[in-house]
């Protein structure tokens, strides 16, 4: 089992998480995934990577430093991305139900980042 797979398992234990992925920022390709059946991984990966690239440019333009986290909420779900420097040009992407404990997702993402450091 890869180190990325271990990270994904850790995040996926959170109630409400439907899956997680390690995604390349520049092209949205999935490096590693652990998703429930029916979760549209490739489409979500491409979407989150594109949104993150735009958010990263916006944050830099506003001179706020670097974009570390991004969250998009819809009526029926949530997309969350963490971009720690330890992952280089990769994102940790979490797909979850709308009722997921976002604070817990963020806390677990931070623990993953610390484990990589």
Describe this structure in words.
This protein is α+β, with helices and mostly antiparallel strands and 117 residues long. The protein is built from 3 helices and 5 strands; from the N terminus they run αββαβββα. Strand 4 and strand 5 form a beta hairpin. The protein is globular. The mean pLDDT is 89.
Concise synopsis of the structure shown:
The chain is α+β, with helices and mostly antiparallel strands.
Annotation keywords:
single chain; 117 residues; alpha+beta; 5-stranded antiparallel sheet
Describe the protein's topology.
Layout: H1 3-12, E1 17-24, E2 30-35, H2 41-61, E3 69-73, E4 78-82, E5 90-96, H3 102-116
Antiparallel strand pairs: 1-2, 1-5, 3-4, 4-5
How many helical elements?
3
Q: What is the approximate shape? A: globular
State the end-to-end CA separation. Answer: 19 Å
* Helix/strand order, N-terminal first: HEEHEEEH
Which spans of ≥5 residues are poorly predicted at pLDDT below 50?
none
Fraction of residues in β-strands: 25-35%
Q: Please state the average pLDDT score.
A: 89
Structural class: alpha+beta
